[in-house]
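Thread: "does anyone have the structure for this chain?"

Original post by V.I.:
We have the sequence but no experimental structure in hand. Need at least a predicted one for the grant figures.
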Amino acid sequence: MTWWSGDDADDDEPYAEYDESAVRVRPNPKGSRPRTKQRPEHEDAVVGRVLGVDRGRYTVLIDEDRPTEHQAVASRARELRRQPIVTGDRVDLVGDTSGAPGTLARIVRIGERTTLLRRSADDTDEVERVIVANADQMLIVVAAANPEPRIRLVDRYLVAAFDAGIEPLLCVTKTDVADPAPFLANFAGLERLTVFTSSPAHVPLDELNACLIGHTTVAVGHSGVGKSTLVNALVPDAHRAIGHVNEVTGRGRHTSSSTVSLRVRSDAGTGWIIDTPGVRSFGLGHVDPANILRGFPDLDRVAQECPRGCTHLPDAPDCAIAEAVERGELGPSGAARLDSLQRLLLALAG
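Reply from O.Q.:
Generated one for you, tokens below.
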């Protein structure tokens, strides 16, 4: 065995591989700056309104109602990647907000939302899909015929509107094809529902404009009901695509593929209407079943007389709504209204 002496400098070399001071420290590949959760304040950010979303790019209106009003295209900041940004959002932008061709701003903050209209894929899906933000009215568009009006789909819209704190409006189109009275009779007990009727010979533009000015209104409806036609009449330069109804299936073809916010103008001022793609279903999986009754204000008033904990289902004892229907106090549509309520309650109960 060989012994090494510490007195000889050359003899110290075999110990070098055990000397911690001689170990080469690799630099931190991520940098030496400590990590922090502190984000920039972006005090120079400008405020804008999101008009539309297309494949990760956002069309934003800046300096709204000012002489310098213009549109810019923006992307989202990395810190917002988990937060949905939708049409109607008020956002803060930084970067190049000039709107010049080829420029791209960056959305760094989402403003506080007053309302959120949401839906789910179906009633069992609890994952919500945000449709629009900050709308205070919902214009429900249905056709008197071709395609046939769907009462239960309108009920779903009403539930979603009342759940979000949005006031509903109802417009029945194609009244030249069929009498809308039998359909409208189903909603005769709703005091908070403003109703319009429309036909090619008479589109109630003045009446609708009066309701839209000063508001942000989201237009919803089944494919083929004439929603985009109505929007084009309200906003002549909208140029929203118009489809047709299949004569065999009676179904409309999806034409509007994106949600777009459009300005409505009149002598009384301006408003915004948000056109959404036509749908054939509207899931309410995100809605608390306890709030479903709010979508049936006529039945909700009667439900105040129900015993505590009443489920309002067919087997519920002493349900005041069922008793009122039996006595005929809710009119000829009372039974259908109760049936629609019970179907929704059962669907959301899983």
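V.I.: this helps a lot. The first helix runs from residue 151 to 164.
O.Q.: and The first strand starts at residue 46 and ends at 54.
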